[in-house]
Write a structure and sequence with these properties.
Layout: H1 2-7, H2 10-23, H3 25-70, H4 75-82, H5 86-90
Length: 92
């Protein structure tokens, strides 16, 4: 860090502020809370995306199965090729 401070004088101020920040417990606690909040939001968004993808995949499987069923394809073949259960295909 000292090399960087020598090369760029503004880094001395950055280092001073950083040192003050990490010494302040209240500020560090608030930072930790914010990081935990942001991490929680990130996890929720990832889960929502995953569920959305799964839902879209299921809708696509059902759409294909419905069309194959209309075309008169055997339900067992439709089930094997779409990943839907025989019951799901029968209920379409």
């Amino acid at each position: 860090m000292s090399e960087l401070v020598k090369e760029k004088p503004v880094m001395e101020e950055v280092q001073r502020r950083y040192n003050n920040f990490i010494k302040d417990r209240l500020m560090m606690n608030e930072y930790d809370k914010r990081q935990a909040y942001l991490y929680g939001n990130q996890i929720m968004l990832e889960e929502e995306r995953r569920l959305g993808i799964e839902e879209g995949k299921k809708e696509q499987q059902m759409y294909i199965a419905r069309n194959l069923k209309k075309a008169g394809i055997d339900i067992k073949i439709i089930s094997e090729n779409t990943g839907l259960s025989i019951e799901e295909v029968e209920n379409l």
